[in-house]
Amino acid sequence: MSTSELLGLYLLPQLLGNFGARFPEVEVILSIDNRLVDLTRRDADIALRATDNPPPKLVGRFISRIASAAYAHRGYLGRVGRGRPLESYDWLGLDESLAHAPHARWLRERVPNARCRLRFSLIEGTHQAARAGLGAAVLPSFVADRDPELERLTEPETAGDFGVWVLTHPDMRRSARIRAFMQEIGAMIATQQRSLLGTLS
């Protein structure tokens, strides 16, 4: 299975443990890469992706929307002050390769004059920089809400149809192992939907 860094690092480990307990005979090989692999070439059997535009040549299902919010480290907020206008904070942004991401759009639309001290090619880069107290960042709530050192600056919001999809090539639907994995992982993520949506107001 191929997935992105945030889903692979923060969402899947526990779910894969649960899946392994139920299906001990199935071996799962997890590839963590932010590039969408070519399932038509069998680079992977299954892709678990956060997207609002899954490739039309693949089949699968939408599992859950993802909520994001702005966060900053408690120490950073202690130094610069809480409750200030968003424009007054230092921001940790994404580079041009992720300009299409909902997190980048959120920052452009909500804080058009944001002072970006650093830009990253990975959302995890902004997460770690925020944890280091270097500024504020827009992060998925299922990642940042579990971090006691981070505080929300805004309430979680979803972005259009952006969410988690589990996908495969049409030919792979005949495989009992592929069907079982897609069904089980999809069901487990759906039951943990609150962790993806955060606490929406």
Write the topology of this structure:
Elements: E1 2-3, H1 5-22, E2 31-32, E3 46-51, E4 59-73, H2 74-80, E5 90-94, H3 102-110, E6 115-120, H4 123-131, E7 137-140, H5 141-144, E8 150-152, E9 157-168, H6 176-191, H7 193-197
Parallel strand pairs: 1-2, 1-3, 5-6
Antiparallel strand pairs: 3-9, 4-7, 4-8, 4-9
Structure description:
There is one protein chain. The chain is of the alpha/beta class and 201 residues long. The chain folds into 2 domains: 102 residues, D-Maltodextrin-Binding Protein, domain 2 (3-Layer(aba) Sandwich), CATH 3.40.190; 92 residues, 3-Layer(aba) Sandwich (D-Maltodextrin-Binding Protein, domain 2), CATH 3.40.190. 34% of the residues lie in helices and 27% in strands. The protein is built from 7 helices and 9 strands; from the N terminus they run βαβββαβαβαβαββαα. Strands 1, 2, 3, 4, 7, 8 and 9 form a 7-stranded mixed β-sheet that branches. Helix 1 crosses helix 6. The two termini are 34 Å apart.
Task: Briefly characterize the structure.
The protein is an alpha/beta fold. The chain is 34% helix and 27% strand. It has 2 domains: 102 residues, Periplasmic binding protein-like II (D-Maltodextrin-Binding Protein, domain 2), CATH 3.40.190; 92 residues, Periplasmic binding protein-like II (D-Maltodextrin-Binding Protein, domain 2, 3-Layer(aba) Sandwich), CATH 3.40.190.10.
